[in-house]
Amino acid sequence: MDAWLRRAVGFDRCDVRALEGLVTVGVVVASVVAAMALAGVSAIGVGGVGSGAPIEVDLDAARVAPDLARRLPAGVDVEAVRATVAARPSGLLEHLLVRLQVLPIALLALAVLVLMRRIVRSVVAGDPFVEANVRRLRIIGWLVALSPILLVIAQVARSELVARSSVGDLALSHVTIAFVPILIGGLLLVLAQVFAAGVRLRQDTEGLV
Amino acid sequence: MTADESRTERHGIAVHLDRVLAERDLTLTELASRVGVTLVNLSVLKNNRARAIRFSTLDALCRELDCQPGDILSYSKPR
């Protein structure tokens, strides 16, 4: 089973240089997304600077389609109807809200990927057990653990944009907090501590004859 | 403690491997092959750049050089 899993996943053939290339591609993609978000151009709706992407919005089904529930089988309840609304920011605040939807997350992803690339490069160089990597791992851990805050900011910005749109009074606003990134961030912080112990062990054996 | 700090760590242990080798008319290369330690590592030890020594290495050195640990190592208070 174990050998089958290794073959299937390909850990044995995993080349650290290929990983470096993959992370570098990630850095480039995150840079492009961050630059587009900064310019107010979405990756989906490339309609020009400031036009933004259509925003997905949940509309109150009871008000938008009151007869919908009657046409559905008994026991099926419709709470919301998914719709898209074009974001056409006019003032400074709305332009800021459009950017807040993607830019913070894109910058966070970019920071994580840049740090990951430095760690992978130290592996390629053959010297990964250094203090710098412990620091990088800790920063990545905190960034990932705090990323739900940026997601909440993005959701609030989206809700505010929807509230200012033509369907503002029909929209259902809700904010969800993701717990998985908090757990992953915590795991990374624990691994950083384990890595720190590895660095101390390596320092102890350095110069041992 | 950072890696750089640990590398420049000062201690009062001195290694007299060169003197003992000269007394026995042995080369470092020959001793390395007898003791089973690489020439590079033995050179690190001889030049006082080692930070630690295994008992097994010390044991092998004393056996091959027919001496006591005190003949190879000495301590003086660091200034």
Would you summarize the structure shown here?
Chain A has 209 residues and is mainly α. Chain A is 63% helix and 7% strand. Chain A has helices spanning 2-9, 16-39, 61-64, 68-71, 92-124, 131-163, 180-205, and strands at 54-60, 80-86.
Give an account of the 3D structure.
The complex is a heterodimer of chains A (209) and B (79). Chain A has 209 residues and is mostly helical. In chain A, 63% of the residues lie in helices and 7% in strands. Chain A is built from 7 helices and 2 strands. Chain A is elongated. The model of chain A is unreliable at 43-51 (pLDDT under 50). Chain B has 79 residues and is mainly α. Chain B has helices at residues 3-7, 17-24, 28-35, 39-46, 55-65, 69-72; strands at residues 13-15, 73-75. Chain B has a two-stranded antiparallel sheet. Classes of the chains: A mainly alpha (209), B mainly alpha (79). At the A-B interface, α7 of A face α1 and α4 of B.
Summary keywords:
heterodimer; A: mainly alpha; 7 helices; 7% strand; B: mainly alpha; two-stranded antiparallel ribbon; 8% strand; globular; disordered N terminus
Poorly predicted runs of 5 or more residues of chain A: 43-51
The poorly predicted ranges of chain B are 1-8
Summarize model confidence as the mean pLDDT of chain A: 85
Rg of chain B, Cα atoms, Å? 13 Å
The quaternary state of the protein chains shown equals heterodimer
The total of beta strands of chain B comes to 2
Strand line-up across the major sheet of chain A: 1-2
DSSP strand content of chain A: 5-15%
Computed Rg of chain A: 23 Å
How many alpha or pi helices of chain B? 6
Mean pLDDT across the residues of chain B is: 87
